[in-house]
Design goal:
Elements lengths: L3 E4 L13 H10 L3 E6 L5 E6 L1 E4 L2 E7 L3 H8 L2 E6 L8 E12 L2 H15 L6 E3 L2 E3 L5 E16 L4 E6 L5
Antiparallel strand pairs: 1-11, 2-3, 2-6, 4-5, 5-10, 6-7, 7-10, 8-9, 9-10, 10-11
Length: 170
């Protein structure tokens, strides 16, 4: 996955360079928390924090099947995931825009469950059955994967804004 990389000079310091996708991808893999933005059935925004793992070119997250974000994605799968630090002068904030696709394949779910546990520890261990994650508390969680359509990087300190545009899958 090699996106088109563009620096937006309007929002970048003189002499700034575009952030390489590999650096952004590593930032997505290492980030612990994300904010998911979805669209409510009435058209309003819904934003909520969650955990996610970067796997096989997609950003993956899970949510209870009855939660608002799951209901929103069922009606409109377009979404954005954001992550970054709260510092004004250092770090790289990242935004991934795409379409959330439900993951139900048992083999992929097992791989993702292992990735969750590896990243977040044994308290985030999930069982896989019936096309979903199941916690030790018994709740079912739908798993979604978002392949980037567009992504943005906002570097602080030397201030640069990078846009990555991805070719459609298939």
């Amino acid at each position: 996955m090699n996106p088109i990389t563009e620096l937006d000079p309007r929002y970048s310091a003189p002499g700034a360079t575009a952030t390489p996708w590999a650096e952004a991808r590593d930032g997505l893999a290492l980030a612990e928390t994300f904010w998911l933005s979805t669209v409510r059935p009435g058209g309003g925004p819904h934003v909520t924090p969650l955990l996610a793992v970067w796997h096989d070119g997609t950003l993956c997250f899970c949510t209870g099947v009855a939660e608002q974000k799951a209901r929103n994605l069922e009606a409109d799968p377009r979404c954005a995931l954001t992550t970054g630090g709260g510092s004004l002068t250092q770090g790289l904030d990242l935004v991934v825009e795409g379409v959330a696709r439900r993951v139900t394949d048992p083999a992929r779910l097992r791989t993702l469950a292992d990735a969750w546990e590896a990243k977040y520890g044994p308290e985030w261990r999930f069982e896989v059955r019936d096309g979903a994650f199941h916690s030790h508390e018994g709740g079912a969680a739908a798993v979604f994967a978002v392949a980037p359509v567009r992504a943005y990087g906002f570097r602080k300190g030397d201030y640069s804004q990078t846009r990555w545009t991805f070719e459609p899958a298939g």
